[in-house]
Structures are given as structure tokens and as C-alpha cells.
Amino acid sequence: IKTTMENFWLFAIFLLFHANKIVCDENPCRHTLSTTDVIDLTKLKGQELIAYAPSNQTYVFSICNDSSSLPSSFLEAKSCTQDGGFSLCMYNNTSPENSVRLAKTAAWKWTEEAGQICLTADYKALKLHIVLSCLSSSGTKGDSSFFVATPPAGKDDFISTFHLISYVACPQKVSQDEGLSTGAVLMIILLLAFLVYLVIGIVVNFFMLGARGVEVVPNITFWRNLPGLVMDGVRFIQNGCKVRPSDLVQGRDTYDSI
């Protein structure tokens, strides 16, 4: 039972950090402005918008998630669609095999500069910008458009600045009944579970087992060893998920050394 509880709390600690990552990670589909208003592109999720450039380039933007296929009118371009797909693809009209994936969804970051709200990403030395412009109408997906804003300096250069004009690009007031996010709820549940575990464990150890002092803490040996276990895990990852002979200590097997 003791080993089971230790494994459970190791998993719970991992889950807690993962939940914190969910809460803190930037959402490429939703952004809270400095004014506390919100821009939410969720209604356009999965839609692919096309921007036709003056040269032989066509740009395809997949909103909110990566796409593993181009619109039906395009020939196959594996450089964009393979390895997880694309969010922004530069499609070469004359040589589809020379198409380039410029960004994936996870690469986009929200910025607010000079009164403009943008999604930005880096492709090598190129800074990509998608400027969001509000279309004041309560329309449908068809009301959104995507077009090239700034022609490239050279004929064959990549275009780096685009505009997304849409009704969903309009800042919205946050409703008061949205509630907590999934990550926040998960963190609260784990913290409450830990509190219940701690209280019940202390009561059992104190009244039934006669423990006193710090020994009333349930699984005290595990909590004392936790910093060392964390360091072992960090060292294991730094070593490329391999156990080096120097990491093995007398009396501990390979699993314990990890």
C-alpha cells in the first residue's frame, strides 16, 4: 500500500505541473488583451484561408490547429503536410515540391504593438506577422478574409506580413459565467486530494499508530526522498534517458538510480 501511495503522489505531482502548463501556455486561438477584453478565433478553428501573392506563391493559413492537407484545388506538397502538418504554408504554384512550411500552430505568439493585435512567429531569420483587423458584423465564417498586406522586397522573397479581417477579430467583453478552466479545476482537485490525504494520514498516524512529531506525516520517508528523486529524474533526462555507470550507487539497482 505504501508503494502504491508513493507512486500515486509521484503521478499527481507530475499531473499538477502539467496542469500548470495547460493554464500558463499561450493559446494561439484565444488571447486576453491588456484591456482585459478577449479575442477568440475558435469559431474559425480548422478553416484554411488562402492568400494569393503576385508571384508564383500562394499562402495557406490553417487557423488554431495544424492541417495535414491542403485545399482540394492544390497539388500535394509534402513539405507542408507531413510531420504534423502546417499552420502557415507557402505553396509554390509552379513547383509544389518546393513549397515551404513557414509555421506550425504552436509557434504563434500574441503581440500588441502600436495599436495592432498580431500573431507572430519566426521562420529562420524571417519574422512573420498576421495582423488581426475587426470586421464589425455578426456574420459567419464566410465573412473572414485573409490577404497579403506587404509585397516582398524581391520577386522570390517570402511574404512576412498578412492581414486577417474577421468578425471574430473584434475584442469581446469577458462574460462572468465562463467559470474556471480545465487546468484550474484539475489543480484544485489535486490540491484538495492532497489536503484530505494529509489530514487523514496525520490522524491515523497520531491516534492509531502512536506517531509523534514529524513522524505523523504520512509516508514521511517518501517526502524526505522526494528532492533526491526529482534530481535523479533531471539527471536521467540530461543523460538522454540513459543510466550512466557513474550514476549507479552500491545497493541500488538501475530503476532506483533513475
Description of the structure:
- The chain has 258 residues and is an alpha+beta fold.
- It folds into two domains: 30-173, Cation-dependent Mannose-6-phosphate Receptor, Chain A (Distorted Sandwich), CATH 2.70.130; 179-244.
- It is built from five helices and eleven strands.
- It has helices at residues 2-24, 78-81, 182-208, 220-238, 254-257, and strands at 30-32, 38-40, 48-52, 57-62, 88-92, 100-103, 109-113, 116-123, 126-134, 145-148, 161-166.
- The longest helix is centred in the last third of the chain and has 27 residues, at 182-208.
What is the number of strand segments?
11
Structural class, from helix and strand content? alpha+beta
**What's the structural domain tally?**
2
Indicate the overall shape.
Answer: elongated
Topology pattern, helix = H, strand = E: HEEEEHEEEEEEEHHH
Percent strand:
15-25%
Q: What is the H level of CATH, i.e. the homologous superfamily of the largest domain?
A: Mannose-6-phosphate receptor binding domain
As a percent range, the share of helical residues equals: 25-40%
Subcellular location: Preautophagosomal structure membrane
Signal peptide: 1-24
Keywords: Membrane, Protein transport, Receptor, Signal, Transmembrane, Transmembrane helix, Transport
Pfam family, one: ATG27
